[in-house]
Amino acid sequence: MSAGYAQLLRTRHAARLLAGTLVGRLPNATGPLAVVLFTRAEGGGYVLAGVLSAVYGVGNAIGQPLLGRAVDMYGQPRVMLPAAVLSALAMGLPAVIGLEPLALVYAAMAVAGFFTPPLEGGLRALWPSVLKREDRVHAAYALDAVAQEVLFAVGPLLVTTCVALWSERWALLVINAIGVLGALSVVVSPPSRQWRSAPREAHWLGALRSSGMLVLIASFFFVGLALGSIAVAAVAYADEHGGGMVSSYLLSALGVGALLGGVVYGARQWPGHPENRLRLLATLLALGYVPLALTPGVLGMTLLTGLAGVFLAPALACAFVVVDRHAPRGTVTEAFSWLVTTFGVGSAVGMTAVGPAVERGGPAAGFAVAGAGGVLALLVLVSTKRFLSPVPDAAVHAPAQVTAETDRNEAVQPGFRAGHQA
Q1: 67 Rama sector, left if φ>0, alpha if ψ -120 to 50, beta otherwise
Q2: pLDDT value of position 2
Q3: Which of 205, 261, 287, 387 is the 20 to 30 A CA-CA neighbour of 11?
Q4: Cβ neighbours of residue 384 under 8 Å, at least 6 residues apart?
Q5: Which SS3 state, helix, strand or coil, does residue 198 take?
Q6: Cα 340 from Cα 52, distance rounded (Å)
């Protein structure tokens, strides 16, 4: 099972790019939890913590596709490193000044979110030029999703470890300093410096010209909502069950479950169209989120969150492939960044909604928000099936060698049928 992954990682630059991207994304992956813990330590309530996290998420949602489009136009180093530095400085400001003046803290959260570098979309844009073959690129998407879940498993533990060793303030500073180092490692690498996007048609909608992209954005908005609500609900659950590391147990179990699911999913090639497979995975994902509202004891809840995460990485890996098939030519980084954006917006909305839910109905109500998010994500995919129909293989299969951006985009705009191109 691990042989295929090992072969990919032995490819020149692959391990460095993957590791650098994961480290660079640490602030984005753990920032909301760090903000919640910091706000609570400073005397703020769950509503304020949720709103601050939401502001960060909305800023991230706006910035990711815009920065992704800038990367497609100007290259990765000129955009990603300055953005990473600005984001880290803004996120570190509340750690220095506290929660007052509140308007300045809101502004800092917005700037930190907006300038979060699109490392995730940038990595997926780099895979074709690094791996050369389409089958390896698709395997790399699965590996990427698996490695991402390692980040989500380890990240919360890193945050709470920083809190235990130092304080919530230092947790904010440390994770953002590490993030800048990760971004630096990526942008100074030869593949990142040499990468250029394929020529694109000038259009203000960019990647959003594809109806399939719009469906994915809508569906994964609700997946993000579920994950965002789980992050806050887990802290509330921990407050009622001993505090301390309990929230990290739950969030880490969610990541470990997704890690295991992703390893199994990425170990083989799956038959059929990925669009159809994505709907099946979304069904299983929803079935995992709904039982969280039962909120049993710590051991039972940890097991439930682990099971809830099993189909997250497979759903993400499959979604990456679907994005690759439906994104218009020349919008590769922007298209992947839009998928990341759905998590930012959805997570922000989830964190905002779950605060009042927790204060009125306790942790069970918070986890019920997560279950509703999973169900709505599935309903979007099922109700819009005709807009995310499978792309004919002739339109998406690349030749054995692919260039800096998937060659399949040279002849046909994925996601657009004959006579329906933008």
Answers
A1: alpha
A2: 56
A3: 261
A4: 215, 218
A5: coil
A6: 19
SS3 state of residue 94: helix
CA distances from 121 to 107, 116, 125, 177, 334 (A): 25, 12, 6, 21, 7
Tokens of 150: 């390692």
* 292-299 long-range contacts, CB within 8 A, separation 24+: 292/230, 292/233, 292/367, 292/368, 292/370, 292/371, 293/364, 293/365, 293/367, 293/368, 293/370, 293/371, 294/364, 295/237, 295/362, 295/363, 295/364, 295/367, 297/241, 298/241, 298/242, 298/246, 298/249
Reference 151, options 24, 308, 22; nearest CA is: 22
397: left (phi over 0), alpha (psi -120 to 50) or beta: beta
CA nearest to 378, candidates 326, 314, 315, 303: 315
Per-residue H/E/C for 299-334: HHHHHHHHHHHCCHHHHHHHHHHHHHHHCCCCCHHH
Where do the domains of the chain lie, and which CATH numbers do they carry? 3-197+205-409 (1.20.1250.20)
Strands (E), 313-393: none
CB 27 within 8 A of CB 88: yes
199/119 Cα distance (integer angstroms): 21
Length of the chain: 422
The pair of three-digit structure tokens given for residue 284, joined into one six-digit string: 């299983």
Amino acid at 107: A
> Does the predicted model carry a pTM greater than 0.85?
no
Give the tens place of pLDDT for each residue, 198-235.
655 655 566 777 788 889 889 999 998 998 899 889 98
Helix (H) or strand (E) holding 52: helix 46-74
Direct distance between the N- and C-terminal alpha carbons of the chain, in angstroms, rounded to an integer: 41
Q: Is 402 helix (H, G, I), strand (E, B) or coil?
A: coil
> Of 245, 97, 225, which Cα lies nearest the Cα of 172?
97
Summarised one tens digit per residue, pLDDT across range 337-366 is: 888 777 767 877 887 788 888 888 889 999
Cβ atoms 405, 198 nearer than 8 A? yes
CB 422 within 8 A of CB 328: yes
In this structure, which amino acid lies at residue 131?
Answer: L
Handedness of CA 222, 227, 232, 233 (dihedral sign): positive
The conformation of residue 29, written as its DSSP 8-state character, comes to: H
CB burial of residue 165 (10 Å; 0-12, 13-18, 19+):
exposed
Residues 295-323 have a mean pLDDT of: 89
**159, amino acid identity:** V
